[in-house]
Amino acid sequence: MAYPSVSGPYGLIPINLIGGQVFAGATRSIPIAVNSSTAIYFGDVVKLNSSGTLDKDTGTSAATPVGVFLGCSYTDPVFGKTFRQYYPGTTNISDVVAFVQEDPDALFKVAVVSSGTTISYVTRANVGENAVLVQNAGNTITGDSNVAISGTTATTSTWPVRIIDVVPETASAPGTYTEVIVKWNQGMHQYLNPTGV
What we know:
- The chain is mainly β.
- Helices cover 0% and strands 37% of the residues.
């Protein structure tokens, strides 16, 4: 039986919480600063800045996430209240609010790449190791992120995510997995970092 293949990265997708707890789709609404110039896509890693508004977290081997971006809303001057899959950046609107999965116990499904958007794989032996984020520009057509993790893993404790399982349904071959389940590493999430923002 052929498994579905993963053609490219798609960001971090929340699936449940540590211990098998259910992710019920809960999000926190966090404002994005007026005229913020950086686009943020569905599945991008995001962080709070010192003004209390949301930024894309562009970290790779180091990150200070508050969570993952799951869309936004704002009042469009022509169409009124608008909901979008992504924030396009440089929007001269004062009420942009992002929807963020910000639970520090969240688990995410994510694609594995060798570099850029080139799909790679890990093996079950990589479960329990840490990985770096691979930042790629999002897709303006779908609104989806292209963030992934590197297939090069290690026990480096300062890397932002830990692989806790593989996704067998999209194995590229027996024992090689193109998708994994990850969690934030201890002290990386802004809510659990004693230095705060």
